[in-house]
Design goal:
By secondary structure, the chain is of the alpha/beta class. It has 11 helices and 10 strands.
């Protein structure tokens, strides 16, 4: 157990940097408004705490921007040509990380055109994080592997800081990433900073034994990060780390990309459909007609409309179709 606790920890952080969502998060009408500047200052303090916990700990930061994902920082490689000048009042690794992350984010935000409403490439950032973890955890003599002098590969985990809602079309890529994380034994933690709960990220945290936390007090972001996500998974076994009590296991159908409560699963490729289909669009399997009829009869019927009150037809005043949807028939 002591050798497991002494293992170095690798943390890959994925930042959801949607300009639209951060604009909504910073509005003064919110109970606890949080600007992207305040978010970054608290995040950098958390990342410095991770680096300072153990000398062999490694860190990688990925940014999910509209339509693309970018690696912002890694402790094993230099991503900037000009390192920041030395400061006697700051620890050099902290200053290097703070300056690199801030510069890279500002550079990428400046390249976003006004009115760009493309969804953030959260799945792309998650895939890049898994590829990077796979590279550093494989036994190798390269300089990008574990820190020099370390005999154990790092214990990897991923932390996703999300502000965007679920994107139903990304259900299949996210599930593939979750299965890859399970195979690599990577823990995925999720911190929902703004917006409604995300169904897919809840499932990602649950299936990889991670923690999903929805921020109720966004002004205490740093406290949430340090108390819940700073300890590595091995240390969490002896800590009371908060977890999500209720998890939404709904899936998105493969035909319309909608989140469904009741779905129909192909017995060959496990594709999910919102309605019975004669041929699976994924594996082209043809289903028996009798099975389709039985499934269609088992589909839940829509709720009946409430009965409308009867009017006196002799004295009723003719109404247009549009008006009858908004008011009851009037009587003279």
């Amino acid at each position: 157990m002591d050798s497991e606790v002494d293992k170095p920890s690798h943390l890959s952080v994925i930042l959801d940097l949607s300009p639209t969502q951060w604009y909504l998060s910073a509005k003064a009408t919110n109970p606890y408004p949080l600007t992207i500047g305040s978010f970054l200052s608290q995040l950098l303090a958390f990342l410095n705490a991770h680096i300072g916990t153990k000398n062999e700990n490694t860190l990688a930061v990925f940014g999910a921007f509209p339509g693309k994902s970018v690696m912002l920082y890694t402790s094993t490689e230099a991503l900037v040509d000009e390192p920041p000048p030395l400061d006697a009042n700051s620890y050099p690794p902290f200053r290097m990380m703070d300056t690199t992350v801030t510069r890279q984010i500002l550079r990428e935000l400046d390249t976003i055109e006004p009115g760009d409403e493309r969804p953030c490439a959260l799945v792309g950032a998650l895939t890049k994080a898994l590829c990077y973890i796979n590279r550093i955890t494989l036994p190798s003599t390269s300089s990008t592997n574990v820190a020099e002098g370390s005999t154990h590969p790092p214990d990897p985990r991923i932390l996703i800081l999300s502000v965007s809602p679920d994107l139903s079309s990304s259900y299949i890529p996210i599930m593939n990433a979750i299965f890859s994380a399970q195979k690599l034994k990577v823990t995925i933690d999720v911190c929902k900073v703004y917006g409604a709960d995300t169904v897919f990220l809840q499932q990602a945290a649950h299936l990889t034994n991670g923690s999903y936390i929805y921020l109720e007090r966004r002004d205490a972001l740093l406290q949430y990060l340090i108390m819940s996500f700073l300890p590595p998974p091995l240390v969490r076994r002896v800590l009371a780390v908060p977890r999500q009590d209720k998890i939404d296991f709904r899936a998105a159908c493969f035909c319309h990309k909608n989140i469904v409560d009741v779905g129909f699963v192909c017995s060959v490729c496990l594709s999910i459909f919102c309605q019975p289909v004669p041929v699976c669009s994924t594996c082209r399997t043809k289903f028996p007609i009798k099975a389709l009829q039985r499934l269609k009869s088992a589909c839940p019927s829509p709720a009946p409309a409430p009965p409308r009150p009867l009017a006196n037809l002799n004295n009723a005043v003719p109404r247009t179709t549009e008006a009858t949807h908004h008011s009851t028939p009037g009587l003279r």
